[in-house]
Specification:
This protein is mainly α and 124 residues long. It has 7 helices and 2 strands.
Length: 124
């Protein structure tokens, strides 16, 4: 039986999953920082890990980086869950940030506003 070769990013992701399940969160995060590819199948494993363990400041740092839309979404969801709706809105609305240029983030922001009765109809 021939097993497929796993790339280093895949191996790091799998090891991080094992370390998280063992309760070694800091080690899992360190492993994921070593990856070359941040997002696999449009999922950012590190952003998910940080969100699951309420690591808000680290997640905020990831969300501030260009190209980390998954971290933006995870941070906004975590803040909303913690009833910080204004903080969640601010994450999506950062002028010039990654969320401002992403149509998916605009959609997520619209959904967030609608969930909290903040959507207004405006005529042009």
């Amino acid at each position: 039986m021939v097993l497929p070769r796993l790339g280093s990013d895949m191996v790091l992701g799998l090891l991080a999953t094992i370390r998280e399940r063992q309760g070694y969160i800091d080690e899992a995060i360190a492993l994921l920082r070593r990856r070359q590819i941040i997002s696999i199948n449009s999922r950012d494993q590190r952003a998910g890990l940080l969100a699951r363990h309420d690591r808000i400041e680290e997640l905020r740092a990831c969300a501030a980086l260009d190209g980390h839309e998954e971290a933006v979404q995870q941070l906004a969801q975590l803040l909303e869950k913690g009833e910080d709706v204004e903080g969640a809105i601010a994450v999506y609305g950062q002028a010039g940030g990654p969320a401002a240029r992403n149509p998916n983030s605009a959609y997520e922001l619209a959904q967030l506003l609608a969930r909290h009765g903040r959507a207004e109809r405006r005529s042009l």
